[in-house]
Design brief:
By secondary structure, the chain is an alpha/beta fold. The protein is built from 9 helices and 7 strands; from the N terminus they run ββαβαβαβαααβαβαα. Helix 2 crosses helix 3. It is globular, with a radius of gyration of 17 Å.
């Protein structure tokens, strides 16, 4: 795998020359690649972890955010395709699950190499509609309360107007990507899919998560964990353990 890095793909394997596969991770709405920093350090030598950093956050704060899925995915294909040197897998949490799924389908549409595995976390199946009102219909106060309820807004940020002023446009842009997305009818993917779910997640029921099954011709696995929407952080090592087992089975 190439050693060079750019602003789109962070960590880039953390210098793992013995890696057999590349795991590319996609962050949640309002988040950034830093949520996967510890993953890059903790995953074993055979798994090179990279994380997509979308514009408009963290060190890319001055760049405009995407607000629609199609141009976002088209840009990701252009940026990531030259970097896929090893057999690769995708793992996305919440919005990241949807982005990873659409990226896998766009690669197939273009006849490019496809992931051998897709891990989708904290997200209802893409053909389903959320029971929550679109973010565009919420006031700033209502949107802040929703994100706090999910556990995605640190209290020090929620109580600091200047920080909120920075974070809210990012959250609104990311929710626009989600809320304006429609899942086109296409054949199932050929890669294995695992759906990761927090049993206390108010955004998704087990039934809604299980509905990801229709999007693969291959092995489908559902993994449930204690915790809320951000169980990937609170039981991170348990999630990693399950993910490693699924990757091993999918790679063969």
């Amino acid at each position: 795998m190439k050693d060079t890095v750019d602003e789109w793909l962070m960590f880039n394997g953390q210098q793992k020359p013995a890696a057999r596969l590349q795991l590319i991770c996609f962050h949640h709405a309002g988040g950034g690649a830093s949520m996967f920093r510890k993953w890059a350090e903790e995953m074993p030598e055979e798994i090179a972890v990279s994380a997509v950093q979308l514009p408009g956050r963290e060190f890319r704060l001055r760049e405009p955010c995407f607000t629609r899925m199609e141009p976002l995915v088209h840009e990701l294909v252009k940026r990531l395709t030259p970097r896929l040197d090893l057999p690769f897998a995708f793992f996305g949490h919440s919005m990241g699950a949807l982005v990873a799924f659409e990226l896998a389908r766009e690669l197939r549409r273009r006849g490019e190499r496809e992931p051998f595995y897709l891990g989708v976390s904290g997200r209802i199946a893409p053909q389903l509609r959320s029971r929550f009102r679109p973010a565009a219909e919420l006031t700033d106060a209502q949107l802040i309360e929703r994100v706090r309820e999910l556990g995605g807004l640190p209290e020090q940020v929620a109580q600091e107007p200047e920080l909120l002023a920075l974070v809210l446009p990012i959250i609104r842009a990311d929710y626009a990507v989600i809320d304006n997305y429609t899942c086109a009818s296409e054949p199932p993917l050929s890669c294995a899919i695992s759906a990761f779910w927090g049993r206390g997640d108010i955004l998704a029921t087990e039934e809604q998560v299980f509905a990801w099954k229709q999007h693969t011709h291959h092995q489908f696995t559902i993994r449930d964990f204690p915790g809320d929407h951000f169980f990937v952080n609170t039981v991170r090592q348990d999630v990693q353990r399950a993910l490693r087992a699924d990757l091993k089975q999918a790679l063969g």
